[in-house]
Amino acid sequence: QVQLVESGGGLVQAGGSLRLSCAASGRTSSPYPMGWFRQAPGKEREFVATISRNGLNTHYAASVKGRFTISRDNTKNTVYLQMNSLEPEDTAVYYCAADSRGSHTYYSIRTRSLDYHDWGQGTQVTVSS
What we know:
Elements: E1 2-7, E2 10-13, E3 18-26, E4 34-39, E5 46-51, E6 58-60, E7 68-73, E8 78-83, E9 92-98, E10 118-119, E11 123-128
């Protein structure tokens, strides 16, 4: 089993930046695809970004492409989400997720929440206008 802990959320003005971190513990002997999702009040959870186990393949939701960057440091079992040019519409609870049980290649990515087996508790990001 994998435990995921997010950090780095907070309150920021529109146009500002934040960097979220997701630290994994537990079954971390080999890396796996990971992703970020978010859920705004009254809305369903939505995909934000994903990264392959080797960090060389990434994919973003259209709403964040060009503003957000996902990366990972496998030596630290940590995935990051750098968020720039933040907008009030980015306000949400951000969740980290890991596909620690599925079959995947070095370049596999996951965009569907049902493909992820492990989830963090979430971190709040609030962007003021």
